[in-house]
Design a protein that fits this description.
Layout (H helix, E strand, L loop, with lengths): L3 E3 L20 E8 L3 E10 L2 E11 L6 H11 L6 E6 L3 E2 L2 E3 L6 E3 H8 L3 E6 H8 L8 E5 L10 E6 L3 E8 L4 E5 L12 H14 L4 H5 L1 H14 L6 H9 L4 H10 L3 H25 L4 E4 L3 H4 L1 H10 L9 H4 L4 E4 L4 H12 L3
Parallel strand pairs: 2-5, 5-9, 11-14, 14-15
Antiparallel strand pairs: 1-4, 2-3, 3-4, 6-7, 7-8, 10-15, 11-12, 12-13
Helix pairs in contact: 3-13, 6-8, 6-9, 8-9
Amino acid sequence: MSNIIAYSDSLFNFDWIYENNQENRTSYFIAGDLGGTKCLLAVFKKEGNRIERIQEQKYASNDFAGINDIISDFIQLLKVKPTQLVLGIAGPIINQSVQMTNLNWEFSATSLKETFGFDEVHLLNDLEAAAYGLAALKEEDLVPLQLVKGDKVPGNMAILAPGTGLGMAGLYWNGSAYHPFSTEGGHALYSPSQTFDQHFWSLLQEKYGLVSWEHVLQGNGIFEMYKFLLQISKDKPDPAFHEKVMASDDPTPIISEAGVWKTDKLASITMQYYCMNLFACLTNVALQFKATGGVFLGGGIPPKILPVLSQMALSQPFLRHPNMDQLLQKIPVWVIRNEETALNGAAVYASWVKK
């Protein structure tokens, strides 16, 4: 995977007008992708319209008391002095401050700037960062799930990213270029339309009260679906496999891997139902954003379950709605295989933002 990002190589037309406002000199900055499970920080060198990643470090978020400790550790490893910091963060950014969704961390751009002496600090929602990261993708980073016949229709784009949580962002098409924006659509209320889904919703409602799409499609949602099917399905898991699942601190990878490779029947059924809910959520997103420019599946889960997604996409329409099929057939769908899209997006933003 290349460490060089050049704007001229972008698959999508972003508005790089701010680039002309920056001096054509060498500078260094830190970009980061901070989630509930892990934090990835990297230092980049910027020269002209190219940025190069020169050093990076991955951290387990729960091993630290806060973001300051992680940044302090990273800075001590560096041989260069970065002047700017841009973080993509799993949580809503309000006035450049954040209370993280899946970690009890709260901080602001101002506090980070004062603590570490950066010239500039910018906070982005992690999916907003991923949206900027589309500018850094290569063709090999994308796997098509729904291709469009004929000419592609220009228009808005959207990203849905199931992982530790469920992120969502959009890219507004102004007629000539894309402009990313963040949303908290992953926390929109789950809308079951089939009797099976309604029963699953009832199970989740007992646990969570209000049930969101994140409860269904985040990693733990796979385990919740497995437990639900265990109650109602005639198919039972292999006893040894089930014991392994229930004994694990993180059963989701065990279930999803067995479902992908069909080594356990109940795990396989679990992943099929999970993907059906994912299809339904993607249809909602495609319609809400009128995303004729395309819908992207990011996050940690889709690349790992790609065989199931691809197989199901061959046997049924990926996006479907009885009144909107004509529109939905014009919307391409891709899986993003590059796990560092949000990190690269934060770097793209850092090199693009007007001083």
